[in-house]
Design the sequence.
């Protein structure tokens, strides 16, 4: 039987030039490099320049992904941007990027699932490609969290950074001999539990306050749930596909906190050499962290065609989820 798979044709990333180190932050709030490194694994983060917007970051990552794929913008008929820091309330950042790429056909929209945004966006795009509705998609995670941070709150301002990453996916017909050997997105699981919405949120918005607001978080509460939720959803995906931890080549988690990443990998029985880490240099870039990490690991030759890659994320909502794909 022939099925359609969403196969990765290319990936790309963009990080703003300005780097803010822990020591820079220690001059602004009561914190230290030692505390931040010990509790989070973060040493620095990139910060968007004045006049540099989420769409600019997303556009740069999209151009890099198209170049990597050897495709033109005109080959794309779907753009999904995962972001919680859009340029405007509307229209979607995706249409700004679409226009900048000179694309006038197909669909473009934003999707908001906070740090799980890229996992949600990839899953939605995969469904739209594998159903035959669209042919080639740009799936982008782009964020400027520096714009929604309370720079006087040491409990949150040290944790986040700006950046963007993108994948080009193509709908390819394959013989479904042994599904798990196919290239492309193989399986996904998405979760949400809105009872936790007050543990990580932004205290502004068009309807409630007519302001943008600032990020608020009960860090300890988020931390408490993170490893359990991540392990549950990844375990579910491995059970559903009959895979064991040994068969996963690369674990590319959302990069929020080194302790959460290490705890999840340990609980899942994944060896540390298989885990891609960027949180030390990028901090938490929310929906951008997974495609940024993928681009780095592909760029330096770790992830190769045919490798089995497990992505996972957990964040505000709470939302969480995992995607299994063969590169
Ligand atoms: O993508 C998902 C989004 N977010 C996350 O995944 C974040 C999840 N949570 C975390 O990563 C951790 O909870 C944090 C890194 C935010 C905090 O680490 P923690 O080990 O849970 O520390 P804590 O919140 O229990 O705070 C310990 C102490 C507190 O002082 P007291 O009350 O014990 O005197 C804080 O006030 O550390 C203090 N503290 C700081 N000290 C220096 C909090 N932030 C800072 C800081 N520098 N930046």
Sequence:
């Amino acid at each position: 039987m022939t099925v359609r798979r969403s196969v990765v044709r290319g990936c790309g990333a963009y990080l703003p030039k300005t780097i803010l180190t822990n020591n820079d932050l220690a001059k602004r709030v009561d914190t230290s490099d030692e505390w931040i490194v010990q509790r989070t694994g973060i040493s620095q983060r990139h910060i968007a320049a004045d006049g540099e917007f989420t769409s600019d970051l997303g556009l740069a990552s999209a151009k890099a992904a198209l170049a990597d794929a050897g495709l033109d913008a005109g080959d794309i008929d779907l753009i999904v941007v995962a972001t919680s820091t859009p340029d405007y309330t509307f229209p979607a950042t995706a249409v700004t990027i679409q226009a900048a790429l000179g694309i006038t056909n197909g669909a473009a929209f934003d999707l908001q699932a906070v740090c799980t945004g890229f996992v949600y966006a990839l899953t939605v795009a995969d469904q739209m490609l594998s159903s035959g509705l669209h042919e080639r998609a740009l799936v982008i995670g782009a964020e400027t969290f520096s714009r929604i941070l309370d720079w006087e709150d040491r409990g949150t301002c040290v944790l986040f950074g700006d950046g963007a990453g993108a994948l080009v996916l193509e709908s390819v017909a394959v013989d479904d001999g042994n599904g798990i050997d196919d290239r492309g997105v193989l399986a996904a699981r998405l979760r949400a539990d809105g009872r936790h919405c007050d543990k990580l949120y932004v205290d502004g918005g068009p309807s409630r306050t007519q302001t943008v607001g600032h990020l608020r978080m009960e860090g300890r509460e988020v931390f408490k749930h993170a490893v359990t939720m991540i392990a549950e959803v990844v375990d579910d995906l491995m059970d559903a596909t009959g895979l064991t931890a040994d068969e996963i080549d690369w674990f590319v988690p959302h990069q929020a906190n080194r302790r959460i990443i290490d705890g999840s990998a340990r609980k899942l029985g994944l060896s540390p050499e298989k885990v891609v880490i960027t949180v030390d240099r990028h901090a938490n870039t929310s929906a951008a962290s997974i495609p940024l990490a993928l681009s780095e690991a592909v760029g330096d030759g770790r992830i190769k065609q045919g490798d089995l890659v497990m992505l996972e994320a957990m964040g505000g909502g709470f939302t969480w989820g995992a995607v299994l794909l063969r590169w």
About this structure: The mean pLDDT is 97. The first strand starts at residue 2 and ends at 14.
